[in-house]
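Repro:
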Amino acid sequence: MEEGIHQLSVTIEHASLRNAGFLKPNPYVEISIDSKSTRKTDFLKNTNAPKWNERFTVIVSANSVLHFRVLDHSSFRKDSLLGQQTVYLANILEHYNGVLENLELSMDLLTDGSSGGSSSKGSHHHHHNHEPRQPVKTGELVT
């Protein structure tokens, strides 16, 4: 991928979220590119195993940072974060010799570990520098 801007097609496939109590979440995914241009999937009702299969075309550069957040939609209160993960495009391009064709990424969804024991957890594999506070795996998101 040379310098400049490129269109990247991202398909949010599915996630598996750790069970957190009686109520299942209404999960959706929010993608932001370089802290702007946020896109969202639809939310799905009452599920720990959402399957979205929603495709987004986003504009990126070789150094873009993609931030994925899985949130629980609520009609009555603020949507709560179920887990999140950051993808550094430069690292992936380096790993795959600059070619991103049909790349499936599975990421650990993390929370910052500061919330109480009742918060929901999920997952999604990715290499990461650990913050001092150990992130908590809350589920898995496949893109």
